[in-house]
Design goal:
mainly beta, elongated, 205 residues, single chain, 8-stranded antiparallel sheet
């Protein structure tokens, strides 16, 4: 009876140890896609403006981007002053599919679908990271933009809008291309005049 209980306890401890080791080996959820363009027409690439198109206006666009070494770990070994580098993600080639649809001249709904055709890194570095797929989807971003203050006319003056981006975690959590589920509200203030378009964005990510 004692041998049977001891054997069961040993098996239980082994299963628990394997579970903990598996959890510890999971990669941290980090999204190294820094360049995230806006899907709204009239915005300044990855800086939002307050303009909203006329009711029923839709747009579709695409954009390509490349990131070099977006995630690098640097560490030191005792007794060696030279730092060691582990380029966890070395190359990231991203194809962004974007679209938008305007309602009532007050709301524009944007949609971003990023696809990482290349997302590779250095094998055998000192950082204990889990292998990941070199092709991966990113997080889908649903981005409603709501006008608060409209310019006196559509080309000049001060404008104000709010964004309420919803991030849907469709990205590979082990591939460093996912933020997880999140809501990222923001305020957009801009000014047009004398051939200039100045904009500032303030939000939470």
């Amino acid at each position: 009876m004692q041998r049977t209980s001891a054997r069961r306890l040993s098996v239980l401890c082994a299963v628990l140890a394997l579970t903990l080791a598996s959890d510890a080996w999971a990669n941290p959820r980090i999204n190294v896609q820094i360049f995230r363009p806006s899907a709204h027409p009239g915005d300044l690439i990855n800086t939002w403006g307050s303009d909203i198109p006329e009711n029923g206006f839709w747009s579709a666009s695409t954009m390509l981007s490349f990131g070099k070494n977006p995630l690098v770990f640097v560490g030191f070994v005792q007794g060696n002053p030279t730092p060691r580098r582990h380029e966890v993600v070395q190359n990231q080639f991203t194809h962004e599919l974007m679209g938008s649809y305007a309602l009532f001249e007050w709301v524009d709904i944007g949609l971003n679908v990023p696809i990482h055709w290349v997302n590779d890194g250095e094998d055998g570095g000192f950082a204990d990271t889990k292998p990941f797929s070199t092709v991966a989807f990113g997080d889908i971003r649903l981005d409603p933009k709501v006008r608060i203050i409209r310019r006196s006319d559509d080309t000049l003056g001060f404008g104000l809008a709010a964004s309420a981006m919803l991030v849907i975690p469709t990205g590979d959590p082990d591939g460093f291309v996912s933020d997880g589920f999140s809501w990222q509200p923001g305020i957009i203030a801009d000014w047009k005049g004398f051939g200039l378009h100045l904009s500032t964005n303030l939000g939470v990510r």
